[in-house]
UniProtKB/TrEMBL annotation:
Keyword Iron: no
Alphabetical keyword list: Transferase
Gene Ontology MF term list: glycosyltransferase activity
Transmembrane intervals: none
Recorded superkingdom: Bacteria
Residues in Glycosyl transferase family domain copies: 191-312
InterPro entries: Glyco_trans_1
Protein name: Glycosyl transferase GT4 family
Length: 394
């Protein structure tokens, strides 16, 4: 079977990671020919098996409107030619704009578009939302990354519910276990050893991810005399802002922004607890990866997939107002989007601080959530999720 994935790049985010994992796994079947069409390539992209054919298209970068339109038309032409040349039978797009291109270049193949985020909670501009709505309506199958995302689509659009299914992101537990035991830099090892308790978080440094809330909580803990540290893995448009906040709070010895790492698992493995401050998520890949390493989780109740991962027995749209000791992690009320320099913590930050102190002072609580994390990660094992994808691809 000839299968095409369309995505902006193979670097950085959850959709990019899932694309690389699915393409690699599907290509292991000799009856499948897998192609991945991307805008750009670079040295930091996720690993792609040699059996997968990568097709690069020039990234649309011109600011001049006429030149941008010409680039868009050129990209549409290249995708159309690619589908015909390789006799694509199923074409899959993982991100909003890619879904639009996938839909309008239909050439007799099955069209699958994946929605990775709750549209009603996103900060997408209006023209992107219109593109997404069009792509969802025209696709043969839409894959929502969580039940909350699926419900959101059905509430926003008049569409047959049978054309929207939920497939969660996979967790390659064996790959994570192999990579986590690699050595980290000596100077960082020393830093980890200096703290009595190390927290870690991983993801793009953007407004959505809310890392500044975690820094504020760490500052309060340090002021109370706790010898703790926070390692932030990732980069993004708020990186400079986060660095300024660290300096403003005099936390250079307690909060480290490491940037994006090709192998984040070896740093996660050194930590005691994983903190997550996202305001909203489609499905939190980074959280699941941390759970595969047995890290206890303390997370905000961000919109969408977080609750489905940590508290699956509750309604996916329920929002807690107190500290919730859920089945697979501790959930605190949703953070705000305001970046504050106030000394006083807001109510959600105070509850995260309380949850952290409870975790640090209770070995039983730590051990419980370590085991629960490992147990939950197994529910998203690679083979199970790949099989779900193959059921709709074929």
């Amino acid at each position: 079977m000839n299968i095409l994935f369309i995505i902006d790049s193979l670097t950085g985010g959850g959709a990019e990671k899932v694309t690389s994992v699915l393409a690699n796994q599907i290509s292991h079947n000799e009856n499948n020919k897998v192609y991945v069409l991307v805008d750009e390539r670079n040295k930091d992209e996720y690993y792609i098996d040699s059996r997968v054919t990568i097709i690069s298209v020039e990234k649309i970068h011109h600011k001049n409107m006429i030149l941008r339109i010409l680039q868009v038309l050129r990209k549409i032409f290249i995708i159309s030619v690619t589908k015909k040349k390789y006799r694509i039978q199923t074409s899959i797009a993982m991100l909003p704009v890619a879904s639009f291109y996938n839909t309008i270049t239909r050439s007799g193949e099955k069209i699958i578009n994946s929605t990775r985020i709750k549209l009603s909670a996103s900060d997408y501009p209006q023209h992107i939302l219109q593109i997404v709505r069009y792509a969802i309506k025209k696709a043969d199958i839409n894959v929502a990354v969580s039940n909350s995302v699926r419900r959101d689509i059905l509430q926003m659009l008049s569409i047959d519910s049978k054309r929207i299914i939920t497939i969660y992101n996979p967790c390659d537990i064996e790959d994570i276990k192999q990579k986590c035991i690699q050595e980290i830099e000596i100077k960082l090892n020393t830093l980890f050893d200096k703290w009595d308790f190390t927290f870690v978080t991983h993801g793009r440094v953007t407004l959505q991810k809310g890392q500044w809330h975690l820094i504020r909580v760490i500052r309060s803990l340090v002021e109370k005399g706790y010898n703790v540290g926070l390692v932030i893995l990732g980069e993004g448009e708020l990186s400079d802002k986060i660095i300024n906040i660290i300096h403003e709070f005099d936390l250079e010895n307690n909060v480290i922004l490491l940037g994006r790492k090709i192998n984040p698992y070896k740093y996660l493995y050194k930590a005691n607890v994983y903190l997550f401050g996202s305001l909203y998520e489609g499905f939190p890949n980074a959280l699941l990866d941390a759970m595969a390493l047995g890290l206890p989780i303390i997370s905000s109740d961000g919109e969408s997939g977080i609750r489905e991962l940590l508290a699956p027995s509750t309604d996916c749209d329920y929002v807690t107002t107190t500290i919730e000791y859920a089945e697979f992690g501790i959930i605190i009320p949703r953070f705000t989007s305001e970046i504050s320099y106030d000394i006083e913590l807001d109510s959600s930050e105070k509850m995260m601080e309380t949850a952290i102190i409870n975790m640090m002072t209770s070995n039983d609580l730590m051990d419980k959530y370590k085991q629960k994390s490992i147990e939950r990660a197994r529910d998203y094992n690679l083979n199970k999720i790949v099989n779900q994808w193959m059921e709709i691809i074929e």
